[in-house]
Each structure stands twice: as C-alpha cells, then as structure tokens.
Amino acid sequence: MAEWWQDANRNERCQFIASLKLAGAIEPQRDTLGDRAVDAILSALYAAPSRLTIAPLQDLFGWKERVNTPGTVDAINWKWRLPFALDRLPDNSELSARIAALHAIASRTRRI
Length: 112
Known about the structure:
Oligomer: single chain
Number of helices: 5
Radius of gyration: 15 Å
Largest sheet: none
C-alpha cells in the first residue's frame, strides 16, 4: 500500500480517498502514508461488512518492502523477512505501540 501510494498520481489518490470516505483523514498531496493515514485506511477496510479482511503485514505497518513482485519469477521473490527478531519485540517500544494501535483498530471494528 505504501509503495502504491507513493507511485499513484493525485487523481488516483483522490479516488481512493473518496471510495473509502476518508476525506480529511488522508492528504492526497503527501507522497507517504503516515500511521494516521494507514490507521484510517485499515479502520475503513475493517469496518466493511465483508466476512474477511486480509491485509499484508507490510500494509499494517506502512512498510514499502514487498514479499513478491506479481508476474515475475526471480531470486528476490518470497525472500522477505521481518525487519526485527521476534524475540526482541518486547524491547522495541515503537513497534509495540504500533501493534497496540493495530489491536485497538481490530477490536473497535470487531475483527477480533
């Protein structure tokens, strides 16, 4: 999502914002999505009446890295790894705070 946003033109961004009814929550002129914008998008998606909502891990954290590149077969695909060791997660207050914010969104929208 972060990479798509960076590459999208202003019109495409405005259409996306309008489709999720996020006017005022996301600034289409900004080339990056901050946590506030990502949270607004996730909240809108999680609040949808669909039975399932699937979000890649990178989208939850606003990371640009990709697990794979669709339509390609090369040595880079499916090699992505978390940018931190799971056993060190409790030591990372910024990451822990982000996880707590994601949990709050999922709880508020009754996805957990």
